[in-house]
């Protein structure tokens, strides 16, 4: 069932969201029995506290929710998502305590709390419903939630059911739903135009492909490029088992750009959108590409392969070169690219790279507004020498073990002359958090959506 607000109901149960310093005054204004009940329950307005106040018939009269202090709230986000899962079945409305962006975040949190990945099991009981609060764009919130659900579903699906063909099918379904055009180059047809994509994917019995979707005919041009490595064994530089365990999520960049594309198209944003997804499985076979092979990219740059497990930047390179040939107003790549990015900022932040201070400011500001945290990383030019092996133009896996996320980003930048932003995301929630169950998760997409007016002068 699509994530959505509950149907408006005049009998919806009111929810009052109270900061810690507001709780005593609110409780003091309640009838004596309710005051006594709040006292017995120890309700102080601490973050995450939930107090259900009964009516005379034993039903629910209203709900008090603790919103704590600003310091407590800063240690997390989507706090009302946790509340939604604690309440008895019914329909609720946020009656007081939140306005503006806080109210919008709370509404999105509540809707996202209803997400379940149910492809392989029966769904659990749905959470309590929420009537769309006054003062927010309810349709926009629902579109964002449903696009996030698409991203999560794609990442959560195991590689047995989400290979390059299945990823293409998902892209085609999205294109059909929004009247977008789509073309796909598959298998040996990649050799001439997309040699790096072909080299990475050729060892799998599931043919590699380059998915190319277009939508919109007016406005600025935006090209999204998403890494679609549907499973990554590491190739001949095979990963240890512990590192291979989560590699179904290595197409998280593709899943995230498809989610962002769904937001853009469903909202009818006036721009010309292109989505490029190199979809491959990095497998092991006699025809797999090898360490110290030298490959020639679509752009003509040669690449020495020093680790076949650094394949994501290879498939992205050909897609970025194609994107750049049209000189779009902005190119954005999203990829689960490096473990170095996880070491640097952990699983909750989306690190991004750009040479434009204006773009960085717009993305950072938007991220704060929509509770989608990001962190700018540097395209540090002095490290360019690290990706130049001498025998070829570029090295796909420079040694030394330092600055891995930066050197990967610098590698990608060699294939783009247009304005460019690169996200090195994780795409996975390692443990359950409010509105984010353990599993696949979108990162950076909501921040980019909010930043588009500034990024593209819409």
UniProtKB/TrEMBL annotation:
PANTHER family named in the record: LEUCINE AMINOPEPTIDASE-RELATED, PEPTIDASE B
Pfam families xref list: Peptidase_M17 (PF00883), Peptidase_M17_N_1 (PF21337)
GO CC entries: cytoplasm
Family under the similarity heading: Belongs to the peptidase M17 family.
GO molecular function: manganese ion binding; metalloaminopeptidase activity
GO BP, one annotated term: proteolysis
Name assigned to this protein: Cytosol aminopeptidase family protein
InterPro entries to which the protein is assigned, alphabetical: Leucine_aapep/pepB, Macro_dom-like, Peptidase_M17_C, Peptidase_M17_N_1
Keywords of the record: Aminopeptidase, Hydrolase, Manganese, Protease
């Amino acid at each position: 069932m699509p994530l959505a607000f509950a149907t408006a109901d005049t009998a919806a149960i009111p929810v009052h969201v109270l900061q810690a310093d507001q709780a005593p005054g609110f409780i003091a204004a309640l009838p004596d029995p309710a005051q006594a009940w709040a006292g017995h329950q120890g309700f102080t307005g601490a973050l995450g506290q939930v107090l259900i106040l009964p009516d005379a018939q034993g039903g629910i009269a209203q709900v008090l929710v603790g919103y704590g202090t600003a310091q407590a709230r800063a240690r997390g986000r989507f706090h009302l998502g946790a509340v939604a899962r604690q309440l008895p079945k019914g329909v609720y409305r946020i009656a007081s305590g939140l306005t503006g962006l806080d109210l919008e975040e709370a509404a999105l949190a509540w809707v996202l709390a209803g997400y379940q990945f149910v492809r392989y099991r029966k769904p659990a009981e749905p959470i309590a419903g929420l009537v769309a609060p006054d003062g927010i764009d309810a349709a926009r919130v629902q579109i964002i939630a449903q696009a996030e659900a698409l991203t999560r579903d794609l990442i959560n699906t195991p590689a047995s059911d989400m290979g390059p063909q299945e990823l293409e099918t998902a892209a085609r379904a999205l294109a059909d739903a929004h009247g977008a055009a789509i073309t796909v180059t598959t298998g040996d047809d990649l050799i001439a135009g997309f040699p790096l994509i072909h080299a990475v994917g050729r060892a799998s019995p599931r043919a590699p492909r380059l998915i190319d979707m277009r939508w919109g005919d007016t406005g600025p041009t935006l090209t999204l490029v998403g890494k679609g490595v549907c499973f990554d064994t590491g190739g001949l530089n095979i990963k240890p088992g512990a590192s291979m365990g989560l590699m179904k999520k290595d197409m998280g960049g593709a899943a995230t750009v498809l989610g962002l594309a769904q937001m853009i198209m469903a909202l009818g944003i006036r721009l010309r959108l292109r989505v490029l997804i190199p979809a491959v499985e990095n497998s092991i076979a006699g025809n797999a590409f090898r360490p110290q092979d030298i490959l020639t990219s679509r752009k003509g740059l040669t690449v020495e392969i020093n680790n076949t497990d650094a394949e994501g930047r290879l498939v992205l390179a050909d897609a970025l070169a194609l994107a750049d040939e049209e000189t779009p107003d902005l190119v954005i790549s999203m990829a689960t690219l490096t473990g170095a990015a996880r070491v640097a900022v952990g699983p909750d932040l989306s690190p991004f790279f750009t040479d434009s201070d204006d773009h960085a400011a717009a993305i950072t500001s938007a991220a704060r507004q929509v509770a989608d945290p990001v962190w700018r990383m540097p395209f540090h030019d002095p490290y360019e020498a690290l990706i130049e092996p001498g025998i070829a133009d570029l090295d796909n896996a420079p040694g030394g073990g330092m600055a891995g996320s930066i050197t990967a980003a610098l590698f990608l930048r060699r294939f783009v002359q247009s304005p460019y932003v690169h996200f090195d995301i994780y795409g996975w929630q390692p443990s359950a958090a409010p509105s984010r169950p353990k599993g696949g998760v979108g990162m950076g997409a909501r921040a980019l959506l909010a930043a588009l007016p500034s990024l593209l002068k819409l």
